[in-house]
Automatic annotation (TrEMBL):
Family, as annotated: Belongs to the TfdA dioxygenase family.
Source organism of the structure: Exophiala spinifera
Recorded GO MF terms: 2-oxoglutarate-dependent dioxygenase activity; metal ion binding
A GO cellular component entry from the record: cytoplasm
Keywords attached to this entry: Dioxygenase, Iron, Metal-binding, Oxidoreductase
InterPro entries for the chain: AtsK-like, TauD-like_sf, TauD/TfdA-like
TauD/TfdA-like domain segment(s): 38-303
Cofactor: Fe(2+)
Name of this protein: TauD/TfdA-like domain-containing protein
Segments forming a coiled coil: none
Organism superkingdom: Eukaryota
Length: 310
């Protein structure tokens, strides 16, 4: 099936009227015919796509288009009860972009584009356990990420997501003007983030990996498909503003890091075996909650190639 990654896509009409509803509005008209059942999970972002078998997308091209629309409209979408082997999981993700290898961790056997996100019973630090936008330290950060639950704890292990359109829209005009001219220096070496990778690098690290990555991106980026502006800094990877020292950058970054994860901008997803989350890395941050020590959580993740932030 031809990938739907390029070109404009029709949008879903807004389903809710709420304080942050403008963050869901895209520029394109909705498809005239609907096949899938899409249910928002929170006021700012997130929706569950129900009653769909993702192994049958090749038989239903209309589903692919509608899933893409839901993804752009709601920024993160969820599926339940999907029985996908790695090959089928990769096929699903490939309908929406090009799967690429994660820089720090080797892929699973036979599928270099799929990594295992694992926290074992004896471990106390979880992988990526801090608010972040995936690999913003790369020159072309990913379009999005797709995560599949293989083993989940009996409780805990939820993931939070935060709407960065809403975070930007709610800033004052004066601060928007200040941020418009700034770029952030993003690095893979910030201590809090690098610590969450240590166990996975130790057991499945990439031996050809450079020690660290660094990239400079606009603090406010424009989404290449919706045309909307989103905050694009994150506490895990943004170290300072370009041309500023870390000390000079710290007060404003501290404000932005706190502001962009305000509760009204977030949604929360509880995992089960067979659950899938697919989020838009260009306008969403996420944070896997580390509240299940003593239990095993085993997920598969695919990263989709993105573009240079502008």
């Amino acid at each position: 099936m031809t990938s739907l990654i390029s070109g404009p896509f029709p949008r879903l009409c807004s389903r809710l009227t709420h304080a942050t509803s403008s963050s869901r509005q895209l520029r394109y008209p909705a498809s005239s015919r609907r096949h899938l059942s899409v249910h928002p999970v929170a006021g700012s972002l997130g929706a569950e796509v129900r009653d769909v078998d993702l192994t049958r997308l090749h038989e239903n091209p209309g589903w692919v288009r509608e899933i893409r629309e839901a993804f752009l409209d709601h920024q993160v979408i969820f599926f339940r009860n999907q029985d996908l082997e790695p090959g089928a999981f990769l096929t699903f993700a490939s309908h929406f972009g090009k799967a690429v290898e994660y820089p720090f961790v080797k892929g699973i056997e036979g599928f270099p584009e799929i990594i295992r996100v694992l926290k074992q019973e004896h471990e106390t630090v979880n992988f990526g356990g801090i608010w972040h936008s995936d690999t913003s330290y790369q020159q072309t950060p990913p379009l999005g990420s797709v995560l599949l639950g293989e083993e989940t704890p009996p409780y805990g292990g939820d993931t939070l997501f935060a709407n960065q359109y809403a975070a930007y829209d709610s800033l004052s005009d004066g601060l928007k003007e200040t941020l418009a001219g700034l770029k952030g220096v993003n690095t893979s070496a910030k201590a809090d983030a690098s610590k969450t990778r240590e166990d996975r690098i130790r057991d499945s690290g990439n031996p050809t990996l450079a020690e660290s990555f660094e990239a400079v991106h606009p603090v406010v980026r424009t989404h290449p498909e919706t045309g909307k502006k989103a905050l694009y800094v994150n506490v895990a990877h943004t170290a300072r503003f370009d041309g500023w020292t870390e000390e000079e950058s710290a007060p404003l970054l501290r404000f932005l890091f706190h502001h962009q994860i305000r509760p009204e901008y977030t949604c929360r997803f509880s995992w089960n075996v067979g659950s899938i989350a697919f989020w838009d890395n260009r306008c969403v941050q996420h944070n896997p909650i580390n509240d299940y020590n003593g239990f095993r959580r085993n997920m598969l993740r695919i990263t989709l190639a993105g573009d240079t932030p502008r």
